[in-house]
Amino acid sequence: MKKLFTLLLVPAFLLGSLSLMAQDSPSPSPSSKLVQMAGTTEITVEYSRPSLKGRTIFPDMHKYGEFWRTGANAATKVSFSKDVMVEGKSLAAGTYALLTKPGMESWGIYFYPFAENGFNTYTSKDPALMVTSAAQKIDCEVETFLIDVGNLRDDSATLDLVWGNTYVGVKLGVK
Fold first, then answer.
1. What is the pLDDT of residues 124-148, one digit of tens each?
2. Which of 42, 73, 95, 151 sits at 20 to 30 Å (Cα–Cα) from 170?
3. Residue 174 to residue 143: CA distance in whole angstroms
4. By the 8 A CB rule, do 145 and 45 touch?
5. 77 near 114, Cβ under 8 Å?
6. pLDDT of 44-102, one tens digit each?
7. How many CA atoms, within 13 angstroms, populate the side-chain half-sphere of residue 23?
8. CA distance linking residue 19 with residue 98, whole number of Å
9. Contact call for residues 88 and 171 (beta carbons, < 8 A)
């Protein structure tokens, strides 16, 4: 009986030790959550933030014209508490997966109804909304990918995507 107990205890101890060690190491693309009020609309963004680490985004990490889950690890989740206008087009309140199709001069911005089952399922369906936004070069280099809600006004804001020396601002109309 003592031998059986030892045989069961040692593997359990080793597995427990491995999970504790995994919790102590930082993620290469840490998760982030932003909650921002714009007007009377709550906007929540949940995503993982990859870093350049000496690479260039295009073409080292991604190719122009291909879908990107707009972050790392899993699809970026964007929630709107009320209906919004995105680049002048209506989008119902709800939770969406944000995918993009980066280009040199503009990016396609795709909002898919959010599903927990992964990136590849989105591009096979029609998005709830697709818009295009200009890609602008900025004078500094941003090491870690950033999504922000900026330019806050009572009835508008921008969903800002910033990485490397690229900025893409998506205009939002809010209530």
1. 789 999 999 999 999 999 999 999 9
2. 73
3. 30
4. no
5. yes
6. 999 999 999 888 877 677 788 998 989 998 889 999 999 999 999 999 999 999 999 99
7. 6
8. 31
9. yes
